[in-house]
Design goal:
The structure is a single chain. The chain is mainly beta. It is built from one helix and eleven strands. Strands 1, 2, 3, 4, 5, 6, 7, 8, 9, 10 and 11 form an eleven-stranded mixed β-sheet that branches. The structure holds copper (II) ion. The site of copper (II) ion (CU) has 5 residues, from strand 9.
Length: 172
C-alpha cells in the first residue's frame, strides 16, 4: 500500500518536472562596436527534466543578425579561441548549464546593427526534444575583470596573406 502511494507521488512529481523543462535565467549580450560582425549571447539554462537535453540551435530576427552559431571557448596553447559546437550544448538532467563569457555561448553572426547597452531583443532557443523557448536578451556592460576580449579576432576570419612571395617578378 505504501509502495503504491510512493510510486504515485513519484509519477506526479515526474510529470510536474516534465512540464517545466528548461528554465532560463536572464539572457544578456555584450555591447558591440560599429563594424563588429559578431557578438556573444549568454544565459543560464537549467534542465529541470529527468532526461538530458541539448541546446541545438538559436534564432533571432533577421533585423538583428544574419545567423547564429553555438560556440565554446577552447584553450589552445594558452590562447582562448572560439569553436563552433556542431553537436549542440549539452544540458544534463537536473543541472544548470551556464552560457557565459569564456565558455559556451550563442554567437550572433553577421550583425545588422551594433548591440548597444540597454537594447533588448528576443532570442529563440531550440532544444533536441523538439521544444523551444524564447528569451529576451538585454545588452549590458560586463564587469571586465578578466582581460578577455570576446568578439574580436573571431575564428575563421583570419586572412593571412603572408607566405605569398612575389619576388622574382622584377620587370625592368
Ligand atoms: Cu563565439
Amino acid at each position: 500500500m505504501k509502495k503504491i502511494a510512493l510510486a504515485l507521488s513519484a509519477a506526479l512529481l515526474c510529470q510536474m518536472a516534465m512540464a517545466k523543462g528548461i528554465q532560463t535565467g536572464a539572457a544578456y549580450a555584450r555591447p558591440t562596436v560599429e563594424g563588429q560582425s559578431a557578438g556573444g549571447v549568454f544565459v543560464n539554462l537549467k534542465n529541470t527534466d529527468k532526461k538530458d537535453n541539448v541546446l541545438v540551435g538559436a534564432s533571432v530576427q533577421p533585423s538583428i543578425a544574419g545567423s547564429t552559431e553555438l560556440h565554446t571557448h577552447i584553450n589552445e596553447n594558452g590562447v582562448m579561441k572560439m569553436r563552433e559546437v556542431k553537436d549542440g550544448i549539452p544540458l544534463p538532467a537536473g543541472k544548470t548549464q551556464k552560457l557565459e563569457p569564456g565558455g559556451y555561448h550563442v554567437m550572433l553572426m553577421d550583425l545588422k546593427q551594433p548591440l548597444t547597452v540597454g537594447k533588448t531583443f528576443p532570442l529563440t532557443l531550440k532544444f533536441k526534444d523538439g521544444s523551444s523557448k524564447q528569451v529576451t536578451v538585454r545588452v549590458r556592460k560586463m564587469q571586465d575583470t578578466m582581460k578577455h576580449d570576446h568578439g574580436h579576432d573571431h575564428g575563421g576570419h583570419d586572412h593571412n596573406h603572408g607566405g605569398h612571395d612575389h619576388g622574382g617578378h622584377d620587370h625592368h
